[in-house]
Amino acid sequence: MGRPVGQTNQAQPSVQHTASPSNKVSHNGGIGKPANIPTGIPVNYQQTQNQWSSQLFDCMNDSENAVITLIAPCVTFGQIAEIVDEGATPCATAGLLYGALFFTGASFVYSYMFRARIRKKFGLPDAPAPDWITHLVCMPFALCQEYRELKHHGFDPILGWAGNVQQAQQQEMMTPPTGQRMMG
Predict the structure, then answer these.
(1) Eight-class DSSP state of 157
(2) Which spans of this chain does the record mark as coiled coil?
(3) Rounded to the nearest 10 degrees, how much is the dihedral formed by the CA atoms of 53, 79, 131, 150?
């Protein structure tokens, strides 16, 4: 027997049930028991965050920098700013601006933003306090910690951005290729 007149040979779209707070999906796709729907987060997942390589008050880990920061914090800040800005802000410019703000008591407003950028770049916690508080209350300690952190990540703030780039290029050129064998 044939089809009744007026019906086509097209398949009807099937309705799929989705899990929502108001309905439950069973293993066979129908409404019923709740299904084990993955959320994308493993059961034993713990979000980890990198830690600062040194504590806030570990200034004597780099005593030379500690003395420079105590005498002329604008120098340390300028070095940090040049590295964090990837050379866009020269050390002297950042240092002079910091120095001018230092005498008004507002240098922390400028400097804490660089701490926040360092934290973001290296995935560091906002510790021991929010960046602006750390810079307001413990400015020289914060600058020393940031300087040490940059060194920990392979930067030499004394060289500036261009010096670090040049040093990295020289090291790259001197690194022997891996995975090659001698033929012969």
Answers:
(1) G
(2) none
(3) -20
Other beta carbons less than 10 A from residue 143's beta carbon: 28
CB of 151 within 8 A of CB of 65?
Answer: no
Name the DSSP class of 29. Answer: S
pLDDT at 182: 66
The token pair that represents 60 in the structure block: 């004597």
**157 and 167 Cβ atoms separated by less than 8 Å:** no
At 50, the pLDDT band (50, 70, 90 cuts) reads confident
The residue type at 15: V
The model's pTM: 0.68
Encoded tokens for 170: 């020289």
Q: b/e per residue, 62-74, with b = 16+ CB within 10 A?
A: beebbebbeeebb
How far, in Å, CA of 82 to CA of 86, rounded?
6
